[in-house]
Amino acid sequence: MTNILISGGSVAGLTLAYWLREHGFAVTVVERAPSLRDGGYKIDVRGAALDVVSRMGLLDEVRRHSTDMRVARFVDARGRQIGTMSAQLFGGREGDDVEIMRGDLTRLLHAAAGDGVEYVFDDSITALRETPEGVHVTFANGAPRTFDVVVGADGLHSNVRALAFGEESRFVHDLGHYISIFTVPNHLGLDRTEMMHPAPGRSTGMYSTARADDAKAMFLFSSPPLEYDRRDPAQQKKLLAGLFSGQGWEVPRLLDAMEDAPDFYLDSISQVRMDHWSSGRVTLVGDAAYSASPASGQGTSLALVGAYVLAGCLAEAAGDHAAAFTAYERELRHFVEENQKLAEGNLRGMVLKSAAQIRFQMLMLRLMPHLPGRNRMIERVTEPIRKAATAITIRDYRAQAA
Ligand SMILES: Cc1cc2nc3c(=O)[nH]c(=O)nc-3n(C[C@H](O)[C@H](O)[C@H](O)COP(=O)(O)OP(=O)(O)OC[C@H]3O[C@@H](n4cnc5c(N)ncnc54)[C@H](O)[C@@H]3O)c2cc1C
Predict the structure, then answer these.
(1) 109 domain-assigned
(2) Residue 144, in any domain of the structure
C-alpha cells in the first residue's frame, strides 16, 4: 500500500488524510503542536469547498457549528456608531456559504478522518532525502522512516517547503499589511456581533460568535515589512501595543487584555506563489503551496478543495506520483489564481488609508438602504467572491489499483 506522510494537521492536512484513507492509502500525519490545534478565528467555507465538505458527509455538522453572526457595527474613536451592515455582507457571504470557527472545523475534520490515520504530535520533519525506496525522512523527536510520498500541509511558513524548495522569501509575498488576533473577555457583551473601529491605516475589531463565552480582538494595519522574531510573542505584543498606542474606542482595553491572551497571533498578510507545487516525491497543499492570505477569505476553501483534488489525483495515478502531481497542478491552478486575485481588492476595503476615505465609506453605508442601485452595489461585492469560489467543478475520482 502506498505510504504517505503529511506534515501539518490542520484544514489541508486533515482533509487530505480523510480522502487518502477513502482511496485506500496508508496515512501518517506529523503535527508540530502537542495536540490537535483547535483554537483560532472564524473562517468561511464557500462554493466548491461546500461540495467537498458535503462529500465528506459533514455539511450538516458544519452548518450546525455556524458562527451565526448577525450584524457588523462600525464605531468612531468615541464608540459612536458611524455605520452598520449585515454580517453576511460584511463577510462577503451569500446563499449557502458558511462561516465557522476554525477550531470547530478542524475538530470535525479530525473526527471524520477517523482512527485509520496515524498521528504523531509534538514532532517535526528535519530532513528529506529521496532514495530508490522513497523519501527518507528524519524527525526532531521520532526515529527516521521512509515514505512513498511526503506532503507539506504545514501552512504559510511551511517546513516541508523550506526543506524541499528552499528559502521562504522566494515564495512568500507580503501584501503590505499585518493581522493580529487573539481571545479576550467579552467585556462589551457582544452577541453574534462584529464591531469595527476604522482609523487611517489601521482597523481594530472585536467579535463574539454563537455559543462563545469570550470574544476575539483583531488588529489589521498596513506597514512595510517589520523585523521581529516569529517565535517570540512577548516581542510581538510589545510591537503591536506600540503601533496602536493612542488609538481610541476600546483599543487600550483590548491591548491590556492581550497580555493574558492564551492564543496571541501576529503575522504578515501574505500569499504564497510558486511555479510548481511538487518536487520529486514531495508536494505541497493548502497555505504551504498557495496561501491566498486571510484577506482573500478563501484560504480555507482552497485548503479543502486542494486536498480533495490532490488525494483524487494520487488515487487515479495508481502509484505514479509524477503523473498525480502534474494532474493536481493542472486541475487546481486556475482556481488558486482566481482566489488569490481577491486579496488585494479586499484589503483596500479592510484598511482605509485616510480619514476622508473612512468618512466617505461610512456615508455610503448609511445611504445604501436608500439608494436605487443598492442591489447592484451589493452584487459588486459578492460577485467576484462567488465567481472565484466556484471557479472549479470538483469531479469524482476513481481509485486505480496501484
Ligand atoms: C488571522 C487569520 C484569519 C483568517 N481568516 C480567514 C477567513 O476569514 N476565511 C478563510 O477562508 N481563511 C481565513 N484564514 C486563512 C486560513 O486559516 C488558512 O488559509 C487555512 O487554515 C489553511 O489551512 P492549512 O491547513 O493549509 O494551514 P494552517 O491552518 O496554517 O495549518 C498548518 C498546520 O501545520 C502545522 N505545522 C506548522 N509547522 C509544522 C512543522 N514544522 N511540522 C509539523 N506541523 C507543522 C501547524 O501547527 C498547523 O496545524 C485566516 C488566517 C488567519 C491567520
Answers:
(1) yes
(2) yes
Q: What is the pLDDT of residue 83?
A: 93
Residue 97 to residues 161, 259, 347: CA-CA distances in angstroms?
A: 31, 34, 21
What pLDDT is stored for residue 223 in this prediction? 97
Query: Pocket around ligand 1: residues whose beta carbon is below 6 Å from it?
Result: 7-13, 30-33, 37, 41, 43-44, 102, 124, 153-155, 159, 179, 181, 265, 286-288, 294, 297-301, 303
| Residue ranges for the chain with pLDDT beneath 70 | 1, 399-402
DSSP calls for 221-290? EE-SPPP--TT-HHHHHHHHHHHTTT--TTHHHHHHHHTT-TT-EEEEEEEE--S-SEETTEEE-THHHH
Atom of ligand 1 nearest to the CA of 267: 53
Q: How many Å apart are CA 40 and CA 44, to the nearest integer?
A: 13
Pairing of strands 282-284, 278-279: antiparallel
d(CA 13, CA 186): 32
Number of folded domains in the chain? 1
Whether 367 is in a domain gets the answer no
**CATH code (residue 299):** 3.50.50.60
